[in-house]
Write a structure and sequence with these properties.
Largest sheet of chain A: none
Number of helices of chain A: 13
Radius of gyration of chain A: 19 Å
CATH topology of chain A: ABC transporter involved in vitamin B12 uptake, BtuC
Radius of gyration of chain B: 18 Å
Oligomer: heterodimer
Mean pLDDT of chain A: 92
Strand content of chain B: 25-35%
Number of helices of chain B: 7
CATH topology of the largest domain in chain B: Rossmann fold
Largest interface: A-B, 30 and 36 residues
Largest sheet of chain B: 6 strands, mixed
Structural class of chain B: alpha/beta
Number of domains of chain A: 1
Strand content of chain A: under 5%
Low-confidence stretches of chain A: none
Strand order of the largest sheet of chain B: 5-6-7-3-8-9
Structural class of chain A: mainly alpha
CATH architecture of chain A: Orthogonal Bundle
Bound molecules: adenosine-5'-triphosphate, magnesium ion
CATH superfamily of chain A: ABC transporter involved in vitamin B12 uptake, BtuC
Number of strands of chain B: 11
Distance between the termini of chain A: 45 Å
Helix content of chain B: 25-40%
Chain lengths: ~270, ~260
């Protein structure tokens, strides 16, 4: 594998995108868990499929279309949940399905041979291209820099939104940033695990990490480390056994979550 | 004396629920105002209005001469219900430290030595310093309440808003906290909601009786008639010259 990694550029791309995906995932996944935005993130991811369809239809990079759809849907869902009396879950459900429907429609309108959409739905880390990698690097830098710069403000906002407002922090700005960062993370993850599987890679690492630490940045760092283990593990298995990489990564991540949680419960209860 | 809080004909609606109706109120500097009233009478809403967390549906609110949305940082607030994330990976001291943040604490903010020593001082004072490294969700009700009072105090606010701050405290901690508040009151205006009449009569400088509208605002002297009006039913007063304790819907546990 190591020799192959040195000689094949597709494996190098896969390797770097696994690392970058884990960084975005560890940071934003932790925020999603603390703010209970898991379903929201699933909704944003699925809506992004509309953008992939639109990208094909217009002949532009599908990930750029996905980013536009993800950001706009994140802000749109938030706005409708805040400003209307429609039940928040309903807004989310509608966007979720509408995004998928639009994606399929745009693709069917696209003349010529239909593109392979499974790699967007279930991920295919072995086909990550140089341009995908560049998009990923840009998104990751935005995510990491934003969180580092506003770290104390984000912490306070995540812990107690009302009090953040009392001390005068710009809560609306922090909230908007959170949604935009979730959208960018979704874009980073689409090529790695695919739209359908994103939720598990976002939630499994921080759910494991937060069982072991009482500090936010440790949770984020530990989540990043776990994400790297899951992604590289999945990549390796998929390369060696020739099975779909996205699915391999998710199975490892979810299995690890249950094993760690059950083991921890078991060890704790046998101590008492 | 300067007026620090001024409400003119303020009403607040949540959808079609009327929480406050036509309230006019002036609170002067260094007052210690107690607010009483039955459940659902709009006491918490009044504090949120002053803290800038709720907007008036009509009328004008001025805090320190400005609309409340511009006074952040000068108003300390201890909420009645803790809408905070108890599972959050935060130690008690980190949670209290957030009281040192201001609207300028955005870019690459770091807590200073001064922040830490202010926080440790107040945590000693409120007897929660020994809990400082515990995860915030692992505090008991009363310990949590003291942590949140500490968080508001480290803001060094000009006005301190307390919404039933001692609802889950034992008798000893209660009088301890009130003696701290009495000290702070020398240089800070305090506005406190409480159902505890003993406290109201012995600590506050003025009293407001609220039930959607303002029934009374003045010296802390309670009469049967007034309480009957506010609470909508006759309320027993055990009086020995000084009104001592009333027993309306008394709730010990308001903590969730
Ligand atoms: N966020 C909200 N949405 C809708 N209605 C609300 C909201 N908050 C308060 N209310 C309503 O406004 C009224 C006043 O509520 P408030 O919390 O101010 O009362 P309170 O005097 O503090 O009561 P308590 O003694 O129980 O704390 C109540 O009828 C309540 O149902
Ligand atoms: Mg209340």
């Amino acid at each position: 594998m190591i020799e192959a990694l040195i000689s094949y550029s597709f494996l190098q791309n896969a390797f770097f995108s696994a690392i970058l995906a884990s960084i975005a995932c560890g940071i934003i996944g932790t925020i999603i868990i603390e703010k209970q935005l898991i379903m929201m993130s699933g909704g944003i991811a699925h809506t992004a499929f509309g953008g992939i369809g639109l990208g094909y239809f217009l002949g532009i990079e599908p990930l750029i279309g996905a980013m536009a759809f993800a950001v706009l849907s994140a802000l749109g869902i938030r706005h409708l949940q805040d400003r209307t009396r429609i039940t928040p879950e309903v807004v989310l459900g509608m966007f979720w399905a509408l995004g998928m429907a639009l994606g399929i429609l745009f693709i069917s309108f696209t003349p010529g041979y239909p593109p392979d959409i499974t790699s967007y739905l279930f991920g295919d880390i072995l086909t990550v291209s140089r341009s995908d990698l560049i998009i990923t690097v840009v998104m990751n830098s935005i995510i990491v820099i934003t969180i580092i710069v506003f770290f104390n403000a984000f912490k306070t906002y995540l812990f107690d939104e009302e009090f953040a407002q009392v001390v005068g922090l710009p809560v609306v700005l922090l909230e908007t940033l959170t949604y935009i960062l979730i959208a960018l993370t979704v874009v980073v993850l689409i090529r790695v695990v695919g739209i359908m599987l994103i939720i598990a890679l976002l939630t499994a690492p921080p759910s494991i990490a937060r069982q072991f630490t009482y500090s936010l940045h440790h949770t984020m760092l530990l989540s990043i480390a776990l994400g790297i283990i899951f992604c590289l593990g999945g990549l390796w298995i998929s390369y060696v056994m020739g099975i779909p990489s996205g699915a391999a990564i998710i199975v490892i991540a979810v299995a690890s979550y249950f094993i760690v949680s059950l083991l921890k419960d078991y060890i704790l209860s046998s101590h008492n | 004396m300067n007026t620090v809080v001024e409400l003119e004909n303020v009403s607040v609606y949540y959808g079609n629920v009327q929480a406050l109706f036509n309230i006019s109120l002036k609170i002067t500097e260094k007052d210690f105002l107690g607010i009483i009233g039955p459940n659902g009478s709009g006491k918490s809403t009044l504090l949120k209005l002053i803290a800038g967390l709720v907007k008036p549906s009509s009328g004008i609110v001025r805090v320190l001469g400005k609309p409340p949305f511009h006074t952040h940082g000068k108003i300390g607030y201890v909420p009645q219900r803790f809408n905070l994330n108890r599972e959050f990976p935060f130690s008690v001291i980190e949670a209290v430290l957030t009281g040192r943040l201001t609207k300028h604490s955005l870019f690459l903010h770091r807590y200073t030595e001064v922040d830490f020593s202010a926080v440790e001082d107040i945590m000693y004072k409120l007897e929660i310093h020994n809990l400082k490294d515990r995860q915030i969700g692992k505090l008991s009700g009363g310990q949590m309440q003291r942590a949140l009072i500490a968080r508001a105090l480290v803001m060094e606010p000009e006005i301190l808003l307390l919404d039933e701050p001692t609802a889950s405290l034992d008798a000893g901690s209660k009088s301890h906290i009130y003696s701290i508040l009495k000290d702070l009151n020398q240089y800070m205006t305090i506005i406190m909601v409480s159902h505890d009449m003993g406290v109201i009569s012995s600590y506050v400088k003025s009293l407001a009786c609220l039930n959607v509208t303002m029934f009374y605002h003045g010296a802390p002297e309670l009469t049967d008639t007034l309480l009957g009006q506010v609470y909508g039913c006759p309320v027993e007063l055990i009086a020995h010259g000084v009104p001592h304790r009333i027993l309306p819907q008394h709730r010990e546990e308001d903590y969730d």
